[in-house]
Amino acid sequence: MKVVTNISMRQRRDKTSKPKSGRPAASQDPEDDPALIKLKHQHIPRDAQGDPVFLILPKGLRARYDEWMGNLEAFWKATEDPIAVSEAHTLTLIYRQVSPLWLDEAIYRLADQRRSKNHPKRVREAVIRSSRYMAVRDAKKRGLTWPEAYEAAERSCASNSATAGTWETMRRAYMDVKADLKAGRGGLYFLPHEQNPAAREAMKAGRSLVKEGRDATRLKEAERKASTRPKKEKAGTGTTRRTRT
């Protein structure tokens, strides 16, 4: 199966240009509208030229993928069965495609429902411990003794009510984090990006704009084709009609 790994290798098909006559190309695909592409792929990583980076499927394979994903989207919206989300995510992995917005929203909703009150609590506690650890580590790198480093960390963290603590608190946090890192539990101190509800609403609005823009582009294309279609001549307007005898 032949695929292209960068949209820039598709001869800049997404950056449609006007033909020499200056008129819009009759075969121009509404999906190739640069404004729609920019909005539709706004969250996709880009290359050095600013083009979205993802795999381009051949037409036949693309149609099969779109049909399958469309069925899964309809199934999810009708039933909210999590297996639809799992299968759709696996499909994007197999076909090496970017997840559509509906799938991202579904995954976010399932994750948000599964997340308990303890999860954000653990994140906050880990951030506090790691902040105290780094304060001690940085102080020690400056050549201070351990007691001096703990005291320096105490002064450094005092400006933040969440990380503020005693000399002993700094020492305990440093030892705990160091033990976790040594044991391969560094993932405890990874700070996930908690998505802002307003940002998600903006993404939904963007999707609506993409759909509206696509529909408007298709309507204009249909109107243009209708206006250029030759009109049928009416009977009796100078044309000779042959009658059967």
Any overview of this molecule?
It is a single chain. This protein is an all-alpha fold. The chain contains 8 helices and no strands. It has helices at 34-40, 59-79, 82-95, 101-114, 118-141, 146-157, 167-182, 197-228. Helix 5 (118-141) packs across helix 6. The chain is elongated and about 90 Å long. The model is unreliable at 1-27 and 237-243 (pLDDT under 50).
Index terms:
disordered C terminus; disordered N terminus; single chain; 245 residues; elongated; mainly alpha
| Rounded Rg | 30 Å
Q: Main beta sheet, described? A: none
Low-confidence stretches are 1-27, 237-243
Overall 3D form: elongated
Number of helices: 8
Head-to-tail CA distance between termini: 63 Å
How many strand elements? 0
- SSE succession: HHHHHHHH
Strand content: under 5%
Overall pLDDT level: 78
Q: In which range does the helix fraction lie?
A: 55-70%
* Helical/strand content category: mainly alpha
Question: Any chance you could write out the topology, listing elements then pairs?
Answer:
Layout: H1 34-40, H2 59-79, H3 82-95, H4 101-114, H5 118-141, H6 146-157, H7 167-182, H8 197-228
The gist of it:
By secondary structure, the protein is mostly helical. The protein contains eight helices and no strands.
